[in-house]
Each structure stands twice: as structure tokens, then as C-alpha cells.
């Protein structure tokens, strides 16, 4: 569930969202987007969490800005984004960032 | 619950973590860290979510790398980080990134 990202620099797309109460196939499309993104050139990994209060954060990691742009323009992704704005999301913010350094900790036991 | 961040560029600290089963005051310290961070110079906001699978993502936003470094070196934050590694977190990754652009959507109704 952690993205196995390489040594920085690489890019992160931080997508923070608040859901509406509308289901309308959300779960299937959300999973399809993860599967589809994972198959794109330059995809490095994704981490996602949604709390009981409805706020969700999904961070996808990419090799380059060009890879992010290509994924943004993918037809099926564009359809899903439009559906998200039409029905699934009350509010969302997408931030594109360059990861400059990273520190990992993992328990040995 | 959304961070009201300014126009980019600014910085994001993406903290992804998997909890252990150990409570030991975790909730109180986590809330204290949010309160304390919010009072630091250069703090812009924070967004946080933890799903049922135990994976959590907290993204804090900062004006500068200097502000991030000062917060990293804050004594009470250092104590909390050490306690996190000793007992609360099975695994965690901290990524420091520069936000280059952002897009927001908010439902009108």
C-alpha cells in the first residue's frame, strides 16, 4: 500500500477530495482509474486513504511532468474526472509537486 | 478540512504511515502535533485521512523549506517522531515536495 518510489527527484500529484453521498458506480471507477494509471508510462506508485469524515487523499507518483500531463489527457481519465465533478465530489483540489527528498522508516520486528 | 493554500509555489510534506496496534496516547499526541504545527511560522495548512486498512496520509503545507526544517527540529515534534518510530508506526515515509501548480473544484449547490 506504500508506493515503492525511487530516489528523488520525481513528481507527486496530491488529490484531496470530499465525496458527495452519490454512489453511482464510484468504487468501480475509482479502482479502474488506479489500475489504468498504474499501466501508464512513467507511473511510479500510488497511496490512498479516505477517513470516516469523508475526506480522501490520493497521492500518485510519476517520473516526469510529461507523464502526468499524458495521464491527465487520457480519454477515460478525462471522462472519470468529469463524472467526479458532476456527481461524486463535493470539493477537490489537485496539487502537482516535485518531490525533492524522502525519508523512510520500517519496523524490523 | 481542506488546506486553504495560497497560489503556488509552496511546499508540501507528504507523510504516509501504517499504524501499529499500540494506542499509548497516539490520538492526543497526533492532535497536539497538528495544533503545534499550525502555530509555526510558515505553516499554510494540513489535510489528513486514515482509512479502515490503517494507511494514513497527512499532507502539511509550508511557505518555505526553512519553515519545514524549523518544524522538523522543534523539540516536541522530535519527541513525537521518536515515539512514533518506537511504538505507533509500523512503517512511514516522509516526502518533501515543492507544489508547482494546483487546481480546485467546489460544487456550487
CATH class of the domain at 25-99 in chain A: Alpha Beta
Q: Decide which structural class fits the backbone of chain A.
A: alpha+beta
* Quaternary structure classification: homodimer
Q: Which two chains share the most extensive interface? A: A-B, 40 and 40 residues
* Rg measurement of chain A, Å: 15 Å
CATH topology of the domain at 25-99 in chain A: Alpha-Beta Plaits
Q: Mean of the pLDDT scores of chain A?
A: 96
Provide the spatial order of strands within the biggest beta sheet of chain A. 2-3-1-4
User: What kind of sheet is the major sheet of chain A?
Assistant: 4 strands, antiparallel
| Portion in helices of chain A | 25-40%
Number of DSSP helical runs of chain A:
3
- Just name the CATH architecture of the domain at 25-99 in chain A: 2-Layer Sandwich
Q: Distance between the terminal alpha carbons of chain A, to the nearest Å?
A: 19 Å
Q: Report the count of strand segments of chain A.
A: 4
Gross morphology of chain A? globular
**How would you spell out the order of helices and strands of chain A?**
EHEEHHE
Low-confidence stretches of chain A: none
Roughly what fraction of the amino acids of chain A lie in strands?
35-45%
Amino acid at each position: 500500500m506504500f508506493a515503492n518510489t525511487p530516489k528523488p527527484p520525481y513528481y507527486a500529484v496530491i488529490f484531496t477530495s470530499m465525496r458527495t453521498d452519490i454512489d453511482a458506480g464510484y468504487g468501480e471507477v475509482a479502482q479502474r482509474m488506479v489500475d489504468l494509471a498504474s499501466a501508464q508510462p512513467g507511473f511510479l506508485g500510488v497511496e490512498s486513504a479516505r477517513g470516516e469524515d469523508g475526506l480522501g487523499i490520493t497521492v500518485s507518483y510519476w517520473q516526469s511532468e510529461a507523464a502526468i500531463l499524458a495521464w491527465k489527457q487520457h480519454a477515460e481519465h478525462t471522462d472519470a474526472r468529469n463524472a467526479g465533478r458532476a456527481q461524486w465530489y463535493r470539493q477537490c483540489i489537485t496539487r502537482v509537486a516535485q518531490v525533492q527528498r524522502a525519508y523512510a522508516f520500517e519496523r524490523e520486528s
